[in-house]
Amino acid sequence: MSTTSPLLEVRDVSLGFGGVRALTEVNFHVNKGELFSIIGPNGAGKTSMLNCVSGRYKPTAGRVFFEGRDVTGMTPNQRATIGIGRTFQNLALFGHMSVLDNIMVGRHHLLKNNFLTGGLYWAGAQKEELAHRRKVEDIIDFLEIAHIRKATAGTLSYGLRKRVELARAMAVEPKIILLDEPMAGMNLEEKEDMARYIVDLNEEWGMTVVMIEHDMGVVMDISHRVIVLEFGRKIADGLPDDIMSNERVKVAYLGVDEDEEKAAEAVA
Ligand SMILES: Nc1ncnc2c1ncn2[C@@H]1O[C@H](COP(=O)(O)OP(=O)(O)OP(=O)(O)O)[C@@H](O)[C@H]1O
């Protein structure tokens, strides 16, 4: 057993919406430095789980711990401040603003100099602004979006907007980043690019990643560990290879029935 405590721990989390049970006693943990994925069929509870971690939803039962601290009662803003960052399934960019300004918004809560103190200590504010710009430029370079820096976000292709959204989430400098379907709606080339950015984000930038993604090829290719949800319950937790060969997962998620598979093999 590992002696280091996990970065994120989800303990017995249940979530209900009226009569709908979105999550039932889900347990898992994510270690620092992991690239961790949550998969499952439509409506399995993946986004609900991410929302319980980011603070958008409060679990009906169970607790969420971050760096050993119980964060279950914290608001999304409080969680963002202590290092839990996220992107959304549906894009949440300011369409009328430039790419650069959208990314700068992500750094707002890091600004020490607000309107008042900025006025009093102008030199300090300028220095701080410069440091922020430099950090943002690093992210822009990393995600290769320098050529669209001044473009209005709303005019960009879907794939590029997803990249800008990732840039904004990175700008907050989270300790863990929650990615809700980062490749949804992308073509093959865009998916390959995004997969590479996520791997580099994890390996080179040292960011812990929790990802929901429907593209099984990508998930199995880049994840260190995977959990599978079905009807709000966790049905598997393990290495990608274990998940791929797990019979329950095959039936639940991949739509492969063991008996059907045997029958098909017998016919072939
Ligand atoms: N705000 C909400 N109000 C009511 N029911 C909800 C709400 N959010 C989710 N649900 C329900 O909870 C269940 C889990 O939904 P969730 O969106 O978490 O699944 P998912 O695995 O992310 O699905 P998908 O892959 O389609 O995005 C579904 O039955 C869904 O209808």
UniProtKB/TrEMBL annotation:
<dbReference type="InterPro" id="IPR003593">
    <property type="entry name" value="AAA+_ATPase"/>
</dbReference>
<dbReference type="GO" id="GO:0016887">
    <property type="term" value="F:ATP hydrolysis activity"/>
</dbReference>
<protein>
    <submittedName>
        <fullName>High-affinity branched-chain amino acid ABC transporter, ATP-binding protein</fullName>
    </submittedName>
</protein>
<feature type="domain" description="ABC transporter">
    <location>
        <begin position="8"/>
        <end position="256"/>
    </location>
</feature>
<dbReference type="Pfam" id="PF00005">
    <property type="entry name" value="ABC_tran"/>
</dbReference>
<keyword id="KW-0547">Nucleotide-binding</keyword>
<dbReference type="GO" id="GO:0005524">
    <property type="term" value="F:ATP binding"/>
</dbReference>
<dbReference type="InterPro" id="IPR051120">
    <property type="entry name" value="ABC_AA/LPS_Transport"/>
</dbReference>
<dbReference type="InterPro" id="IPR032823">
    <property type="entry name" value="BCA_ABC_TP_C"/>
</dbReference>
<keyword id="KW-0067">ATP-binding</keyword>
<dbReference type="InterPro" id="IPR003439">
    <property type="entry name" value="ABC_transporter-like_ATP-bd"/>
</dbReference>
<dbReference type="Pfam" id="PF12399">
    <property type="entry name" value="BCA_ABC_TP_C"/>
</dbReference>
<dbReference type="InterPro" id="IPR027417">
    <property type="entry name" value="P-loop_NTPase"/>
</dbReference>
<dbReference type="GO" id="GO:0005886">
    <property type="term" value="C:plasma membrane"/>
</dbReference>
<keyword id="KW-0813">Transport</keyword>
